[in-house]
Design a protein that fits this description.
Blueprint (H helix, E strand, L loop, with lengths): L9 E2 L2 E2 L4 H11 L2 H21 L3 H73 L67
Antiparallel strand pairs: 1-2
Length: 196
Amino acid sequence: MNIPGSGSSTNMGMVSTETYQEKFQRKFKENPFVPLGALGTAIALTIASNQMRKRNSKSMNNWLRMRVIMQGATIAAVVGGSIYYGQTKQQKEAREAEEQERYLENVARDRAAFQERLKDAEEVHRLETMGSNGQSQSKWFPWGGASENSSDAPPEVLPPVFASPAVTEVQEPAPAQSSGKRGIWGWFGRGSSKNS
């Protein structure tokens, strides 16, 4: 698992880099005793070297002993912090894995429930569209719609809505009274007549 801002995480193929200040802040938040111990060691060493310059050997030895104690405390903080944060990191990863597993189980359960509801809805729809004789009925088309039981062939008999009206007698249009001129040119006086 990558820690955000660690410099080793990848985001869409890009490696993120962090500055020294950001890295120091992150490390200080993770284990504040290590930088404090290093600072104490540096201060004890600086005071010991100052006492050596003044030729105060007793005080210099005390500060050198203090430096050794601070350095030991810093090393203990490094080891203890590594063990503690290593365990918490493992525990965190275990919790995240459990959460992920629960999430996937919930998703699978929800998906199975949805599939069941979908099957039930399809069955109800199929039963609602079935006619009394097993043929598919549709509220849009009186002769039925396409279903699993019906073929794609058009119905043999069209319903009365779409059937053509019964033709009892064909009447021919009455002939127009001829003025002797035909066509549109007759209107302009250029048409030819039958008699001429």
